[in-house]
Write a structure and sequence with these properties.
- The chain folds into 3 domains: 62 residues, no CATH class; 153 residues, no CATH class; 111 residues, Arc Repressor Mutant, subunit A (Orthogonal Bundle).
- Helix content is 52%, strand content 10%.
- The strands form 2 sheets. Strands 3-4-7-5-6 form a 5-stranded mixed sheet, covered by helices on one side.
- Strand 3 and strand 4 form a beta hairpin.
- Helix 14 packs across helix 15.
- The two termini are 20 Å apart.
Length: 347
């Protein structure tokens, strides 16, 4: 899959609300530098910048930044107002609560909630329906767009990408679900009670780093910066992860040794990491978790072999840690991935 591109499915979904309003679809696509003939080809893709231009064009025509996916809509300017308000929050937790309340006030057909259970937090999205007995098919594009918006804003606020442990969806697996692995997470769950993004609860304590100057830049670049997925490769914690990835887990230094390696005092290193809300041990634990998930998904190594590679003294310690991370055993996690893969192959 070509990086920084968007499936033509999303182009067709974005165009749906304006196709019945007698707009010149071909002219709109050409203005966004999208070949009208390509969008009917299922395997075709457009650049993230082209899709961003289309998002702005549809929003302008509908006066709705949410592609007509809600009966009330999201008037042009709502996104900017939200971002300008969020920078005054202190932590990601308070910002997420404010953002979800904002969407709940703005939209009539979706309800968003922040829930924390144990080590993990999740943004939950529930589609609301009208009168009893009139349940309609889920507006899948609305769920997809809300997740992209909310995750993108959250990552920008703290200046780094927030890894999604798993994403859940309140509808059956769509034919193009492979796109979701790039958009959301390698771990996907369908036919859930609600749509959700699940992430480590430790991120809720991160301080916000944006201000009046940076919010103006962010709004000016939107929605391209949302579509391209926000990342901050220059953060200090990101550089530590990059260093640790070059070493085997058994070679990972302790806090004192790493401070010495960086020619820093222990207090300076601790302060730098505190500023980003990422303690040294948390960075190591999250990286170890990511390596475990990759090994279980992409190798035939036994759980015992993986536990040794990850630096655990014995497999039982790895089992306890993995169950804490993922709420299931390593074996159950691997079985679930293989079952999902065999189901996709059989479709």
């Amino acid at each position: 899959m070509e990086k920084n591109t968007v499936s033509s499915y999303f182009v067709r979904s974005a165009l749906q609300p304006i196709q019945s309003k007698n707009y010149d679809i071909k002219a709109i696509l050409l203005e966004c530098q999208i070949d009208p003939a390509l969008i009917e080809v299922p395997q075709s893709r457009v650049s993230a910048m082209q899709f961003s231009a289309l998002w702005l064009a549809v929003a302008w025509h509908l006066d709705d930044e949410f592609f007509g996916q809600d009966s009330h809509g999201m008037k042009v300017g709502s996104f900017a107002l939200l971002c300008q308000s969020l920078i005054h929050c202190k932590t990601l937790k308070s910002a997420l609560r404010y953002m979800l309340r904002f969407f709940n006030l703005l939209l009539d057909d979706y309800h968003c909630t922040l829930v924390t259970q144990g080590q993990y937090s999740q943004i939950q999205i529930t589609e609301q329906h009208g009168l009893a007995g009139t349940r309609q098919p889920p507006r899948i594009f609305g769920h997809e767009t809300l997740l992209i918006l909310q995750h993108g804003i959250a990552c920008w606020l703290v200046g780094r990408r927030i890894p999604v442990v798993f994403a859940g969806f309140a509808y059956p697996e769509p034919a193009y679900s492979e796109e979701y692995h790039r958009m959301y997470s390698s771990e996907l769950r369908f036919n859930q009670a609600f749509t959700s993004l699940n992430f480590d609860a430790s991120y809720l304590g991160l301080p916000l780093i944006q201000n009046e100057r940076t919010v103006a830049d962010f709004i000016r670049q939107a929605p391209a910066n949302i579509v391209l997925k926000y990342k901050n490769h220059s953060s200090f914690s990101a550089s530590i992860r990059k260093t640790l990835r070059t070493l085997t887990c058994s070679e990972w230094p302790d806090f004192d040794a790493f401070a010495a390696h960086l020619n820093m005092t222990r207090s300076t290193l601790r302060r730098r990491l505190k500023d980003e809300g990422q303690p040294f041990q948390t960075i190591k634990d999250q990286l170890r978790r990511d390596l475990a998930m990759t090994a279980l998904a992409q190798s035939d190594k036994t759980v015992g072999e993986i536990s040794i590679e990850l630096g655990f003294a014995e497999p039982s310690a790895f089992h306890r840690a993995f169950k804490k991370w993922m709420d299931c055993t390593p074996e159950h996690y691997r079985q679930g991935l293989r079952k999902a893969a065999s189901t996709r192959i059989g479709q």
